[in-house]
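Fill in residues.
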C-alpha cells in the first residue's frame, strides 16, 4: 500500500512534546510515511554538544528539514499552546506554498488572539482537528482516496 509522505510539524523542545510527537507519529504511520524532525532530522542541542558551531548547526537543521518539506505531500501541524511555535508556523507556510495538504491538530483552547489563530495560519490549513482520533480518521480517508487513484491509474495502463 502506498503511504502519504507526511511532515509532522510540532514543537520538540521538551520530553512531553517529543513524547507526544512520537506517539502521534506511531498513530499516523499506518497511513503515512512520516518525517519526524526529532527522529529523522537534526537537533540543535545534540549538534552543539558535539562541537558543531551554532551557525553550521542551524544551517544543517534548516537544510535537512527544508528538504523533507520539499518532498512531502501532506503536513500535519501541532498547534497547541497560546502561541503557535515559530518553526511550525514557517513549516505550514512552506508546505502551503508548495500546494501540500496542510492539516492542523489543536486540542488546546488557549489562544493569544481573542479571535483565535492568526489568519495566516488558519487559512493555510485545510482543516483543524480538535482531537487526534478525528485527524487520524480524516487521514485514513485521504490515504484510501490516494490508493484508489493509484489503482485507477494502474488499470489504465
Amino acid at each position: 500500500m502506498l503511504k502519504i509522505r507526511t511532515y509532522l510539524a510540532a514543537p520538540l523542545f521538551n520530553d512531553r512534546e517529543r513524547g507526544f510527537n512520537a506517539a502521534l507519529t506511531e498513530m499516523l504511520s499506518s497511513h503515512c510515511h512520516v518525517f519526524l524532525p526529532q527522529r529523522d532530522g537534526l537537533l540543535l542541542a545534540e549538534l552543539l554538544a558535539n562541537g558543531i558551531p551554532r551557525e553550521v548547526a542551524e544551517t544543517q537543521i534548516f537544510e535537512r528539514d527544508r528538504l523533507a518539506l520539499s518532498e512531502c505531500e501532506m503536513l500535519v501541524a501541532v498547534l497547541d499552546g497560546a502561541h503557535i511555535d515559530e518553526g511550525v508556523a514557517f513549516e505550514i507556510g512552506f508546505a502551503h506554498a508548495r500546494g501540500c495538504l496542510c492539516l492542523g491538530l489543536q486540542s488546546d483552547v488557549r489562544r493569544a488572539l481573542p479571535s483565535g489563530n492568526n489568519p495566516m495560519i488558519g487559512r493555510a490549513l485545510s482543516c483543524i482537528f480538535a482531537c487526534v482520533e478525528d485527524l487520524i480518521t480524516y487521514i485514513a480517508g485521504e490515504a484510501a482516496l490516494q490508493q484508489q487513484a493509484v489503482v485507477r491509474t494502474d488499470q489504465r495502463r
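DSSP finds seven helices and five strands in the chain.
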